[in-house]
Amino acid sequence: MRIKATTFNRVLLGVLLAIALLIPLLIRTNQYNLVLVTTVLLFGVLATAWNIIGGMAGQLDLAAFAYLGLGAFTSGTLLIRWNVSPWIGMILGGLVATGFAVLVGFPLFRFRVREVWYALTSSALVEVLKVAFVMWEDVGGPVERYLPYYSFSLYHMRFGTYIPYYYIMLAILVIAIVVNYRIGRSKLGFYLRALGEDEDAAEILGVDARACKLKALMIYAFIVGATGAVYACMYGFIHPSFFSGARSTEVAILGIVGGMGITYGPLLAAVILVSAREFLRASLGGQMESLYLVIYSVVLILIALFRPQGIAVFFRDAYRKLLSKVTGDEHVLRANTPGI
Amino acid sequence: MSMSSEPILQVSNLTKRFGNLVAVNNVSLQIPAGEIVGLIGPNGAGKTTFFNTITGLYTPDEGRVVFKGQDITGMPPHKICKLGMSRTFQVTKAFTEMTVEETVRVGAYNRHGEDDVMEKVDEVISFCGLEEIRHQKCGDLGLASLRRVELARAMATEPDLLLLDEAGAGLTAAELAELMEILRKLNREQSVTLCVVEHVMQMVMGLCERIFVLDAGELIAEGTPEEISNNPRVIEAYLGERAIR
Ligand SMILES: Nc1ncnc2c1ncn2[C@@H]1O[C@H](COP(=O)(O)OP(=O)(O)O)[C@@H](O)[C@H]1O
Ligand SMILES: [Mg+2]
Which of A147, B32, B227, B239 shows the greatest Cβ crowding within 10 Å of its Cβ? Predict the structure, then answer.
């Protein structure tokens, strides 16, 4: 009896999800490993969200940690000052990041600021926000502001262990992937991919490029901003160093290495590269910390030379071959299924 | 009613400059609904610029464009497309990472929602004879197929007026004949008005009821293919370039 492709996909997804759910239980005694896997998930979320603006819409956004920082400061400040639950802070943080995205995206897209200019502008934004929050003594300032400590409080999203953060991050990741997948198969997704390739050609076919890019930026900013709330709770403080240009660039790199526009590509890249980075950091010690940037550069160059479409394509093709063997269905070999 | 020559497009005193260069110079013309008209002229005459200005990619420096009775001067391209005008590009602008089917789907979303968009895609793909390459990536296609895909995605937006910028350039005689057949069918069966820019005279002469001639940005002649091929100014313009065929 042959297995249907969709069944096979579901089973595989189920197995992967089960593994993801079991990981913390297997390594629960090792806090360091828990931090590692949670960080992998964090970057998985960021890169997956980035895929919407970067991969689909083709806008080289280098401001992920601007939106993350805004979410973290919104939620963190609400918690510190008014004891507002970070669960609400997540939504509000996402909204603040989205609002900021509109402020930035509206003029940028209105005046057709494109490609390298968009990249530079978004990159500068992160630094501008960092300085602004250092100077804004009421909320930021040069010293860390600590969130109230609880060994286990669901209301405050504060836990003495990383395990709950891992699961929260996993939930956000699943949401980000579903959002990505849905957009990829909808009108917005087709419009984004079209304008990402050629804006004039897309416009001629009825695509309101400006509105579509703004929508993509808003969705991305909301997911990243909401994640920022969890980020603040996880670290236990808020600080302007959250607005990190290097980390923002890293998110874009993961998105590109993973494969532009492929739903699970960025996650795949995050799993491989962030693990490698953290491993190097642990085994080489603090003074060699930035060595991971060398590794990233080498990987980027290799990808640019041999797999400009990203590593996900490699996995996809292999997976399709496997699928066609298992199901005996030649259809799956065709390139018409985005995200698979 | 079909015989009425109510213009679908009225262009008056259109001018487009690039610095000192006047690429389109005070051009006025009318395209009657339901016809196939040609726009010819030597290289650099301003044909592509004329298209870009009409479809909203450029804003004109002077003049007015009225489409189906509505002033569309300075309107963004996506709005003009919604009103029923689309085009192909001389230098193909393919969505290289998308398949043929996906590319056509982008166009089909112009007038269709998720529930019936694929019906439109299927219809256009079979109309243009793209079944065999429907799942291929546009980046892997040859020029002839690419031009056909550009035509298909523009058709999928369901335009009333379709502008074709040198759709026949670089095609073999057989491919050209096929393309002309598709265009005739489109005009006859779906009453789409066509405006074809062509360098290949054979295609224009065989297809068009009316021809406009641009030279150095100016409209120098207008008439039937017969009239145009005997017009001394046209012959002169083309001889200057030794391009007449
Ligand atoms: N974007 C542009 N910037 C400056 N000059 C241009 C531009 N586009 C076209 N031109 C110039 O305008 C003139 C008309 O070009 P074009 O419209 O492409 O002619 P055609 O399509 O008839 O060959 C040419 O001299 C060309 O060099
Ligand atoms: Mg031209």
Answer: A147
